[in-house]
Write a structure and sequence with these properties.
four-stranded antiparallel β-sheet, 9 strands, globular, alpha/beta, 21% strand
């Protein structure tokens, strides 16, 4: 094993990989063991005892984080002309329809969220094979297909995120930045985990929440005592 760096020694001094921390402790600790020169994201990973292959055990939802995500979310609204002003006034970064569909067909996907009205879904469906793999396809279940485009834009800009269990049974989400206070990270993490708890499938037999961890972009994962969040 090579010589440990100063930062690696600092992590070892503060962090016990074999210990399960209370959520509030983990949210403070993640700040102390992150030494990146940039403002790293803070992530929460929740391992669920569900079988995502079964439709009645799929876990998917949305949550508005009390303190936002700490990142600027670029929003594209695809709509008819009568909705353009509403979208622009709410703070959408890009607003239009045919010109943006053509740009996306050409390979442009420089946005974080796409919101559209139901009336244009037929046109949006044509680019579904491009948007789907990137997690950008609008969906009524996440509130991104709606007539209330202004409200949807404001919610996304305020910190609304959507999440979905992956094929291994884990839900991942970035819930803030290391520059946040420990309390802000905790309140965001608590809100995110609470949203997952509320979505427990009725068909599930056995343990729902198997493991929870908190980490930053380049820190070790901090194991959280599941009992402290249930």
């Amino acid at each position: 094993m090579g010589k440990l760096t100063k930062n690696q020694k600092a992590v070892i001094a503060k962090y016990d990989a074999a210990k399960e921390y209370k959520l509030a402790e983990a949210c403070e600790l993640v700040k102390e063991i992150t030494f990146t020169k940039f403002d790293a994201s803070v992530e929460v990973h929740v391992n669920l005892g569900v079988d995502p292959r079964k439709a009645n055990q799929m876990v998917r939802g949305v949550v508005t984080l009390p303190h936002g995500t700490g990142k600027t979310t670029r929003v594209l609204v695809l709509c008819t002309p009568d909705k353009e002003n509403e979208a622009k006034e709410a703070g959408a970064d890009f607003v239009g329809l045919d010109e943006y569909i053509d740009k996306i067909k050409g390979g442009w996907t420089d946005v974080d969220v796409i919101i559209c009205t139901p009336s244009v879904m037929a046109k949006v469906g044509v680019i579904g094979r491009i948007l789907g793999p990137r997690g950008l396809m609008p969906n009524p279940k996440t509130g991104t297909v709606t007539m209330e485009v202004g409200k949807a834009v404001k919610e996304v800009k305020a910190g609304k995120i959507d999440f979905k269990v992956d094929k291994t049974g884990i839900v991942h989400a970035a819930i803030g930045k290391v520059s946040f206070t420990g309390t802000q990270i905790y309140e965001n993490a608590k809100e995110f985990i609470s949203a997952i708890i509320k979505l427990k499938p009725q068909a599930l037999k056995g343990t729902y929440m198997k493991a929870v961890s908190v980490c930053s972009t380049m820190s070790p994962g901090i194991s959280v005592d599941v009992k402290s969040v249930e």
